[in-house]
Amino acid sequence: xxxxxxxxxxxxxxxxxxxxxxxxxxxxxxxxxxxxxxxxxxxxxxxxxxxxxxxxxxxxxxxxxxxxxxxxxxxxxxxxxxxxxxxxxxxxxxxxxxxxxxxxxxxxxxxxxxxxxxxxxxxxxxxxxxxxxxxxxxxxxxxxxxxxxxxxxxxxxxxxxxxxxxxxxxxxxxxxxxxxxxxxxxxxxxxxxxxxxxxxxxxxxxxxxxxxxxxxxxxxxxxxxxxxxxxxxxxxxxxxxxxxxxxxxxxxxxxxxxxxxxxxxxxxxxxxxxxxxxxxxxxxxxxxxxxxxxxxxxxxxxxxxxxxxxxxxxxxxxxxxxxxxxxxxxxxxxxxxxxxxxxx
Length: 344
Description:
Distance between the termini: 49 Å
Oligomer: single chain
Largest sheet: 7 strands, mixed
Structural class: alpha+beta
Strand content: 15-25%
Strand order of the largest sheet: 7-5-6-9-8-4-10
Number of domains: 3
Number of helices: 15
Shape: elongated
Radius of gyration: 22 Å
Order of helices and strands: HHHEHHEEHHEHHEHEHEHEEHEEHEEHE
């Protein structure tokens, strides 16, 4: 391996990491690696192809072509996604993980890309991310319930109602990078919805496609019915949302790896699932759709059938159980005050 790939890994804070170096080696030719090495990380100045060509003694046209290739592969980032004149190096391995895996179509051997990131996560990534999550002083992410599960709730606020969150937003959808990499379940893949500048990036790179308000709601419904939990950064304005499962999600897996409680990273929604055992038919669909091990079957008084029962401490209020309860035995009850939501 050329030493330049190890230097690129060092720039991302992974000195000595063969795993990150191999990712760079697969994604960039030696000439492209030289270009990446010259780029600055934000907030350092972005550089043009002409400036890079002068530094490296290369033809500016060749540099521009290489930058375009690196852009589509998720390795170089322009300040402006339309004119793509000024460029920077990536901010973190998480940024590269998501950008490269979402851009899997631009790699000649996607399976190799998946495996390289898998090797990194299993040997370094999950532990590194988990330790970072452990030191956080407040939950970084929050759970927002499936909109159908709380649609009729009089307590529902705009910042927890997907029908309002998505309204009049510029949005794209991309393949979930975690599910592309891990492939530990059969749940939907094209489910990660991004907004505004991130959506512009996804469309410009060809990693994702623009979606309408109606289509975004359909994607969320499909995701929650499949047991994918709607998560977003823990702030009032949603800028990025993910649909996560505990089989594949890098955040779930990192917390598990480092024995960090979910509550340290995720704020529960204001809602909690409740089961009417008189209506429950014991099908257990809710258990299969729960990522939090919050539902168990118990012997109900006066019934020969086992019935579902929710552990309120374990329930995060995602509403995925509601989405697959055919007899409508599950309802979502508001159990936390409005002050539980992040301030605007």
